[in-house]
Amino acid sequence: MIFNKDTAEKTAELLLQINAIKLNPENPFTWASGWKSPIYCDNRLILSFPSIRNYVRDEFAKNIEKQFGKPDVIAGVATGAIGVGILVAESLGLPFVYVRPEPKKHGRQNQVEGFLQKGQNVVVVEDLISTGKSSLMAVEALRSEGANIKGMAAIFTYGFSVAEENFKEANIDLFTLSNYENLLDLAVQKQYITEDQQSTLLEWNASPSTWGQE
């Protein structure tokens, strides 16, 4: 679910402007999962544009507090959400921790890095939601440390039905600055893509695991 329509449209426009989101229906990308995709999203680019990263920071901070109340800690999911998570924590004047994909193989073997006390209220910040699997693994790692997860806030989601099911099963509320629907509407309006290309992108979104397979 998006925080609000205006933020969703503005965020989508900014992501398109800096080519953080690339749309290429004719020459699809290949994801690590092996899925063929006509879209590629690299939200790390946001950090290289001060005015845009400040916008994302401010929208996150404002909407997290409005939606979840002010938490005790902000947690970022490594590695993509560490940078923006720190910005949000700084804006809210809160402690920050980050969550590795798996525990370290050496030293203290931490998966959650930073100071976290049992019972603290945590909002998790993520950069991108696809199936939600890796994001929810971070939630479980935090829960195993005794954290009370208030919810998750992400920059962008593809809006896959499998992600919605995964978050519902994990009992986690997810809110995003923007999403796939708003992105495509804006991309057509601003002539980044044609209506025919929009149809292709909608077909992919409906069945990403099988799209492009002959």
UniProtKB/TrEMBL annotation:
Reaction catalysed by this enzyme: orotidine 5'-phosphate + diphosphate = orotate + 5-phospho-alpha-D-ribose 1-diphosphate
Cofactor(s) required for function per UniProt: Mg(2+)
Keywords associated with the record: Glycosyltransferase, Magnesium, Pyrimidine biosynthesis, Transferase
All residue ranges annotated as the Phosphoribosyltransferase domain in the record: 59-158
Pathway(s) this gene product operates in, as recorded in its UniProt entry: Pyrimidine metabolism; UMP biosynthesis via de novo pathway; UMP from orotate: step 1/2
Gene3D superfamilies attached to this UniProt entry: 3.40.50.2020
EC number: 2.4.2.10
GO MF annotations, alphabetized: magnesium ion binding; orotate phosphoribosyltransferase activity
Subunit structure: Homodimer.
Family of the protein in this entry: Belongs to the purine/pyrimidine phosphoribosyltransferase family. PyrE subfamily.
Physiological role: Catalyzes the transfer of a ribosyl phosphate group from 5-phosphoribose 1-diphosphate to orotate, leading to the formation of orotidine monophosphate (OMP).
Entry protein name: Orotate phosphoribosyltransferase
Source species of the chain: Flavobacterium resistens
Lineage, broadest ranks: Bacteria, Pseudomonadati, Bacteroidota, Flavobacteriia, Flavobacteriales
